[in-house]
Amino acid sequence: MKLDVLRRYRLQAEEYLRLELTEADVQLGGAIQRQAQCQGKADGEVAAYLETSRIGLDVAGVAMAYQAWEAADAEAHRAEATVDQLTQAREEKQAELAVAIRERKQIELLVERRRRDRQSQIRRREQRELDDFANGRWAMAQQEWTRRSEPS
Question: How far apart are CA 152 and CA 148, in angstroms?
Answer without folding.
Answer: 8
